[in-house]
Amino acid sequence: MAAVDVLNKSGEKVSETNLPDEIFSISVKKSVLHDVVKMQLAGRRQGTAIVKGRSDVAGSTRKLYRQKGTGNARSGDIKSPVRRGGGVIFGPSRRSYAYKLPKKVRVLGLKMALSCKLANNELFVIDDFGLDRVKTKDFSLIIDTLNLKNILIIADEEDKNLQLSSRNIPKVKILKTEGLNVYDILKYKNLLIKESSIKRIEERFNI
């Protein structure tokens, strides 16, 4: 197991904690991370682009004029795609871009993302934030003391004071362990984990 320093909100080492190798010390494959992030982003696409086809346009289906004898092209109804205001040929319609990778691949990707942060010395553990009020200045002082920017913070339970105190600070995001995902881990440079969350992460992987 990898031993990591546990810091307090003053940036002082108060203890050490062990991170299981099965989660935080596995070899990283960029292709797996790419596949998982691509799946996540595909699921977020709205897919709401839509146009009216020939059957959706309001109008009569009556033939505009007789087939022969006029000298004009043979024409159908007014909803024909070649006419102004007619339907669109092969236009976009509502669809879902979401797809699922195998569960083993998704789990492996999450482990690799966590391992990547530890290997790059971008993973930190804090014992507790100890915010007894909603105050952005108090939270800002803590992350300045820790000398961290662009942070993803993992908490084991909902902390209203932490959520509200951090919401106006750019490049800071709070996630519960249930919402831990590859995209957000890789998006933010530093990963700050509450010590009590480590057990929850292990439980998520059944370790």
Question: Mind explaining what this structure looks like?
Answer:
The chain is of the alpha/beta class. It folds into two domains: 2-46 and 98-204, Ribosomal protein L4/L1 (Ribosomal Protein L4, Chain: A), CATH 3.40.1370.10; 51-91, no CATH class. The protein has seven helices and six strands; from the N terminus they run ββαααβαβαβαβα. Strand 4 (151-155), helix 5 (160-166) and strand 5 (172-176) form a beta-alpha-beta unit. Helix 2 crosses helix 3 (103-119) and helix 4 (136-145) packs across helix 5 (160-166). The mean pLDDT is 92.
Give the SSE map.
Elements: E1 2-7, E2 13-19, H1 21-24, H2 30-44, H3 103-119, E3 123-126, H4 136-145, E4 151-155, H5 160-166, E5 172-176, H6 182-187, E6 190-194, H7 195-204
Parallel strand pairs: 1-3, 3-6, 4-5, 4-6
Antiparallel strand pairs: 1-2
Structure in a nutshell:
This protein has 207 residues and is an alpha/beta fold.
Give the end-to-end Cα distance, rounded to a whole number of Å: 13 Å
CATH class of the largest domain: Alpha Beta
What is the radius of gyration?
27 Å
Q: Give me the CATH superfamily of the largest domain.
A: Ribosomal protein L4/L1
Query: Beta fraction of the residues?
Result: 15-25%
Q: What is the N-to-C succession of helices and strands? A: EEHHHEHEHEHEH
Classification by helices and strands: alpha/beta
Task: Please tell me the overall pLDDT.
Answer: 92
Inertia-based shape: elongated
